[in-house]
């Protein structure tokens, strides 16, 4: 019976010693393609966030003076979401140029 207790104690100590060593390390190194995939996924998420932000900013911009219609002589109408352009096909360069235009518009509005 004493031998069984020592064996149990020895196995428990071995397990306690090995667990912290394996805890924070990955089981294997990632391949180059996995790292590239994770990088591309991060870029995709960033571009999608930019598009959403740009669409929100475009909703607040008016295209020009509103036309006088029945009873709405001086009022402007905000564009509906379905009237806004679809920005899913924009490249990051297109998004950056649109952001530059928006910044210029905001600066000119403040002046």
From TrEMBL:
UniProt cross-references to Pfam families, sorted A to Z: Parathyroid
Keyword Acyltransferase assigned: no
Principal localisation: secreted
Annotated Gene Ontology cellular component terms: extracellular region
Biased amino acid composition, Basic and acidic residues: 80-91
Region feature Disordered, mapped onto this chain: 62-93
Localization of this protein: Secreted
Signal peptide (UniProt feature, chain positions): 1-24
GO MF annotations in UniProt: hormone activity
Keyword vocabulary terms for this entry: Cleavage on pair of basic residues, Hormone, Secreted, Signal
Keyword RNA-binding: no
Superkingdom in the source lineage: Eukaryota
Quaternary organization: Interacts with PTH1R (via N-terminal extracellular domain).
Recorded family membership: Belongs to the parathyroid hormone family.
Role this protein plays: Parathyroid hormone elevates calcium level by dissolving the salts in bone and preventing their renal excretion. Acts by binding to its receptor, PTH1R, activating G protein-coupled receptor signaling. Stimulates [1-14C]-2-deoxy-D-glucose (2DG) transport and glycogen synthesis in osteoblastic cells.
Protein name: Parathyroid hormone
Organism: Pagothenia borchgrevinki
Lineage of producing organism: Eukaryota, Metazoa, Chordata, Craniata, Vertebrata
